[in-house]
Amino acid sequence: MPNEAVRLFLFDFDQTLSVIHVFKSLAGWPKQVSLPKPHASSEPGQVLRVEELSRDVFIQEGGFPAMAFGGPERVQQMANLLQSLQDAGAELVICTKGFVGTAQICLGRLKLLQHFSQVYGHIGETYGASDFDKEAAVNFPPGLQSFLGEKRQAEWSSKDSLAKSLMRQKGLKSHEVVLVEDDYEDSDIYIGLI
Predict the structure, then answer these.
(1) Which InterPro entries does the UniProt entry name for this protein (predicted)?
(2) Architecture of domain 8-193
(3) Could you tell me which residues are beta bridge partners of residue 179?
């Protein structure tokens, strides 16, 4: 392998950037961080729920996102790491099986979103909708609209296919791309794995 720097890092979101599984916890799945009801399984519902939990339950600095990322000290460590990767000339992208909006609001509230050129994930009601989700879709606050994902951010079928597509678009070789992932089943990509 040539001695070339990694030029693209694809980061998973849940339990890779965050310390908890944000999607599953907000959706109320068993064996996750227990959050008060209502639970949310749609993108608008989860974005709204992050705001509500930050206002009503996790009222410390950074709110729910800070808790999900392990607290202010870990958030600062994450910011330092991401900045150092960018300073070395790498592009940073998120690819999550969770929602674009959930990742974007958490990262945005922690001032970490600025480090990523793109967030890829699911949008809308991919995993169904509770009564809370249905209400959130009808009465979604305009001030949170910018966090919701767009169709182009959900046009991928697997992390492997997205990585290959980005490599082609950017003219990169496999040794110039790394997937940072906590799930071994998503690590069958032929690119590097941390």
Answers:
(1) HAD-like_sf (IPR036412), HAD_sf (IPR023214)
(2) 3-Layer(aba) Sandwich (3.40)
(3) 10, 193
Please check whether residue 150 is in contact with residue 141, taking contact to mean a CB–CB distance below 8 angstroms: no
**What is the SS3 assignment for 26-80?**
HHCCCCCCCCCCCCCCCHHHHHHHHHHHHHHCCCCCCHHHHHHCCCHHHHHHHHH
Task: Tell me how crowded residue 136 is: count the other CB atoms within 10 A of its CB.
Answer: 24
On average, the pLDDT of the chain sits at 91
Euclidean distance between CA atoms 45 and 143, whole angstroms? 14
Whether the Cβ atoms of residue 11 and residue 182 lie closer than 8 Å to each other: no
Give the pLDDT confidence of 142-152 residue by residue, as tens digits: 999 999 999 99
pLDDT of residue 188: 46
Write the CB contacts of 12 (distance below 8 Å, at least 6 apart in sequence): 94, 95, 96, 159, 179, 180, 181, 182, 183, 186
- CB neighbours (10 Å) of residue 182? 15
